Amino acid sequence: MTELAVTANKSNSNNLLRRDIRFLGNILGEVLVHQGGNELLDIVEKIREASKSLRAVFLPELHEEFKQLINTLEPDIRHQVIRAFAVYFQLVNIAEQNHRIRRKRDYERSAGETVQPGSIEDSVRDLKERGFSYDEVQDILQGLSLELVMTAHPTEAMRRAILDIHKRIADDVMQLDNPTLTFREREQLREKLLNEVITLWQTDELRDRKPTVLDEVRNGMYYFHETLFHVLPDVYQELERCLTKYYPEHNWHVPTYLRFGSWIGGDRDGNPSVTAEVTWETLLMQRKLAVREYQRILAELFRYLSFSTSIVNVTDELLTSIQKDRETVVLNKTPQWRNEKEPYRVKLTYMTEKLHNVIDESKKDSIDRYNSVAELVEDLNVIDRSLRHHYADYVADTHIRYLIRQVELFGFHTAKLDIRQHSQEHENAMTEILAHMNVTENYGELSEDKKVELLERILNDPRPLTSPYQEYSESTTECLNVYRTVFKAQKEFGEQCISSYLISMTEAASDILEVMVFAKEVGLIRKEADGSVVCTLQSVPLFETIDDLHAAPAIMRSLFNMPFYRQSVTGMGDLQEIMLGYSDSNKDGGVVTANWELRVALKQITATAEEFGIKLKFFHGRGGALGRGGMPLNRSILAQPPHTVGGGIKITEQGEVISSRYSLKGIAYRSLEQATSALLTQAVLARQPQQSDLYEEKWEAIIRQMSEVSLNKYQDLVFREPEFLKFFKESTPLGEVGELNIGSRPSKRKNSDRFEDLRAIPWVFAWTQSRYLFPAWYAAGTGIQDFYGNDEEKLKVLQEMYAGFSFFRSLIDTLQFAVVKADLIIASEYANMCSDDTMKNRIFKQIEEEFNLTKSLILKITGEQEMLDNEPTLQESIRQRNPYVDPLSYLQVQLLTELRAIREQGGDDPILLREVLLTINGIAAGLRNTG
Questions:
Q1: Cα distance between the two ends of the chain
Q2: Spacing of C-alpha 735 from chain mean position
Q3: How far apart are CA 341 and CA 339, in angstroms?
Q4: Average pLDDT in the 640-647 region?
Q5: For the residues of 42-83, what is the DSSP string, one character each?
Q6: 424, β-bridge pairs
Q7: Residue 92 vs residues 42, 167, 626, 671: alpha-carbon distances, Å
Q8: Which residues are catalytic?
Q9: 367 — phi, psi (to 5°)?
Q10: Which of 215, 367, 487, 690 could be cross-linked to 211 through a Cys-Cys bond (beta carbons 3.0 to 4.6 Å apart)?
């Protein structure tokens, strides 16, 4: 495809996006008139035009006129205006998501044989062109591992009911591209969309209560039902297709390298609602989902497997398996198929009944159900072999192999569930238990060396530490019940259902050993007679703060040196999982230092593990927002040093990221395709380092210097400015964000006003709402300036680093995105809510100066005229959105000012609060980020 054709195609594609936005905007206009009369539409249009004019040319008099227009809105009309802008953003987001799918299809349609950059085929072709042999590619595939872990972190501001309407609107808008629609069909489509937008307008955006943990479980499972059960095997199919194309002399069955996990129902850190009982119920719900999906697929297979023994010869193996089913399975819930000449359909009826019995507690361990996933796979293989026996290979490949892949991926548990708890909870329980057993009076007060010595001795002692006849406190009983539930779950659902126990705020080796002791108590870890250690639940440290990242290599070295611990890792295939927290490290040290220290920790921990012959699986706790490590999935993989990905990689998928990536099949597929391509790219780089890697040592020394300066700048303001926390609380909607019912978990770990106890999510959420985006960029400029020092030769070095050092490029691009999304003119309006002008002026001046410095340095390093010139699509999207977000921000400031004034007098106003929460939802949709 010629460059001219590409340009023309992009231009036409962008015109279609504008068409969709205009189309949906016009429908919203009709709804506004229908619901609020011409007056509502006129006011919305007046505000929109004023906001656009202010964005085009900022003049102080225009600014004052705009604020006056906002501040004089009557309460009734103000409520409608807020909702109008909020709904508009929902519609724009739908149009943009659809456009991403359209762009990929347009590319594939017009590119012909051209391979799309970042696709799976692009990476497989690269393997072939670099001369990788079949055996080398097989070795690479065996080493690939990516687990995407859904969390219930409270950052999804949208209700499930709203997301359902979005899905219907998205499906309908896609039909606008259908060239075969008649005039009448287009009119009907328009009427249908009008009805959907009216429904959206009349559906409450706000939850009337906080969701329960099981509500969150259902929300997470929605994405498996809607997209992932189908998209995930499609990605595997595409990889196998590409491998067959470039290595045609071999048959390919790609090992399982890409799967999903979940924290929802397992993450109890700071959330007392996640009990052992809730975890068990979560596993039952996940199993039920998987079984229902398989039953639905088997019902579809009935349509395709109508082969008759009057025409074909099936295998004796199939007939024998049917006979065995007749003898052991009673068809209670599945109608019997009476046409004996259609053996596949007969077999499917028994398989469906056996699946029914999987979720029937009365059938537990009986022979008329599938007691393992392997039994279901074997039945499918029997069908597969028989189909190939009479040359129905295409049916076997299209349907049976596809279903086998689904069963391999989702089993009877849908997603692997992780358990997470704060380290202090384990220490408290251990202290109580050891005191009851007269082992030590106060375990919590022992030195770290004494704790480790004691815990190691307990681990090597086969005798139990707890007694079923001993009564413990409620918290200790719950702690023990979690381990009992995991043991029970592994017996019921298979060991793969739960295999990782994450320890938040890991600060010492004892934090990890405590979890091992509890696991030993219930049989999840045991020492055999031959001295070997069997381990089915691994203790996974979560290093979160800057200090914890510094301590991590020494902690892991001390553990690997312990014979019992080293044997437990052997029991897990010589693989140790380690989680790194992006949110708290950023909150602790700022964006530059957090990113740098995470990179250093990755490399140092990897080097430590290599000394002991241990592979590492790093779990990256990235949030959706820029201030919590958020970035596109493929970039988050490519941002890692290639040699640290060898043992696999896990990444959290949180809140609004889940809905934006996995609501629509086309977007989910593209995201997972790019992730697969990134994994293959990293595997190649680990084996064939690029020449630019030779410069990394010199460049890393520069980053280290930047990090030290940036850390001091960041902590001078955040930790050493005595009134900073007051400024943060007064100039952002922090308190009101906590009143938005978006998660079951409290916004603080403790009922405390200390900065240390504030969770990273509301910290980032509040800064994003107030348009500062402070955590995503603050102190970066000072760190870079310290090296640059207005020296043109050093600027050339920074530009070389941007061109050749992937870590630095990723950092600068992330900073660039944050600075573009921030708006300090609007942030200053939030700052005006501060009660102390002296404090406000002092702190805001520091923020403003750092912002301007950071922006100017980014432009120097990238060589761009304007921010995001290298990402024109993103640049245009932000430029188009800002005039619509701005009114919501000014409205939020006005509403917060009024609400806080009433509350300071001891009163409250539920209507004002509701309007504040509506602006929070609207701004989140407009900026496409919460926390």
A1: 41
A2: 25
A3: 5
A4: 85
A5: HHHHHHHHHHHHHHHS--HHHHHHHHHHHHT--HHHHHHHHH
A6: none
A7: 20, 13, 21, 20
A8: 153, 587
A9: -85, -5
A10: 215
Tokens of 609: 């593990």
Residue 186 CA to residue 724 CA, distance in Å, equals 56
Q: Please give the structure tokens belonging to residue 374.
A: 């392997």
H-helix or E-strand containing 618? strand 615-621
Q: Cα dihedral sign for 226, 230, 234, 236?
A: positive
DSSP β-ladder status, 419-422 and 500-504: parallel
Strand partners, 617: 577
Mean pLDDT of 407-429: 96
Long-range contacts of 232-237 (CB under 8 A, 24+ apart): 232/258, 232/259, 232/260, 232/406, 232/409, 232/672, 233/402, 233/405, 233/406, 233/409, 234/669, 235/120, 235/669, 235/672, 235/673, 235/676, 236/405, 237/402, 237/405
Environment class of 842 (CB within 10 Å of its CB; exposed 0-12, middle 13-18, buried 19+)? middle
Least Cα distance to 918 among 903, 900, 896 occurs for: 896
Rg of the chain in Å (alpha carbons):
29
Task: Name the residue among 370, 374, 311 with its Cα closest to residue 344.
Answer: 311
**Tokens of residue 303, six digits:** 């349509």
Q: Express each pLDDT in 517-530 by its tens digit.
A: 999 999 999 988 88
Give pLDDT tens digits for 538-587.
Answer: 999 999 999 999 999 999 999 999 999 999 999 999 999 999 988 888 89
CB 368 within 8 A of CB 329: yes
Cβ pair 765, 588 in contact under 8 A: no
Separation CA 588–CA 921 (nearest Å): 27
Q: What are phi and psi of 146, to 5 degrees?
A: -135, 120
3-state secondary structure of 931: coil
pLDDT digits (tens, 9 = 90+) for 146-178: 999 998 754 455 677 888 899 999 999 999 999
How many Å apart are CA 318 and CA 348, to the nearest integer? 11
Residue for token digits 């002092």? 842
Give Cα separations from 526 to 145, 530, 533, 563, 570 (angstroms).
Answer: 27, 11, 6, 14, 13
Name the residue among 854, 786, 762 with its Cα closest to residue 815: 854
pLDDT at 10: 52
Strands 615-621 and 575-581: parallel
Q: Quick check: 320 pLDDT over 80? A: yes
Cα dist. 163→11, 26, 169, 282, 923 in Å?
A: 30, 21, 10, 22, 17
Of the pLDDT bands very low, low, confident and very high (cuts 50, 70, 90), residue 7 is very low
Question: Which of the four pLDDT bands, split at 50, 70 and 90, describes residue 628?
Answer: very low
Tokens of 929: 């980020």
Distances (CA, A) of 565 to 420, 460, 528: 20, 10, 14
Give the angle 96-102-105 at the CA atoms, nearest 5°.
155
Q: Rounded to an integer, what distance in angstroms lies between the CA atom of residue 474 and that of residue 463? A: 24
